[in-house]
Amino acid sequence: MLEQVIQENTQVMRELMAVFRTVTAETAAAVAYRQQKAVELESTPTTAANDADATPPTEPSAVDWAAGLRKELSTTVLAIAKNHDRQSAVKLLARFGAAKVTEVTDEQLADALAAAEELLGTLNATSQVEDAG
Q: Which residue has the higher pLDDT, 29 or 67?
């Protein structure tokens, strides 16, 4: 009886550790993506920097930021569905509680985009290996 409880507990712990590994990898990918986008935004030159009449640049609103990420996510998910298989795209969105890109919450956009780009990269690499073989 005690051995069975220990085995069940061990199995649950293994499953929990697997979930933590997945979440940690997804979070790390999202952080890396956000850092990359921040560097890209900082390194973008402004054309009116020396213009005396130029107004200071305004920060993009959260809506603009979310719309941009949502558009990138939509493009990436569409590439997965068209170039590989629709089911992979559906499963990806389901991981974020969505059936469509528009149903992904603003808070989840960066994580979803990072996961989609990672999946697309994996599918592209797998496709290239199959084509070469």
A: 67
- Identify the domain containing residue 103 by its residue range: 2-44+61-132
Residue pair 97/103 in contact by the 8 Å Cβ criterion? yes
For residue 49, being part of any structural domain is answered with no
Please name the residue ranges forming H helices in 44-108: 62-83, 86-95
Q: DSSP code of 4?
A: H
Residue 112 resides in a domain: yes
pLDDT per residue as tens digits for the range 3-32: 888 888 788 778 767 666 666 666 666 777
Kindly state whether residue 12 falls inside one of the protein's structural domains. Answer: yes
Tens digits of residue pLDDT in 52-62: 555 555 555 66
In three-state secondary structure terms, 84 is: coil
Residue 95 lies in a domain: yes
Give Cβ neighbours of residue 114 (< 8 Å, ≥ 6 apart).
26, 29, 30, 32, 33
- Return the beta strands (E) in 1-133 as ranges: none
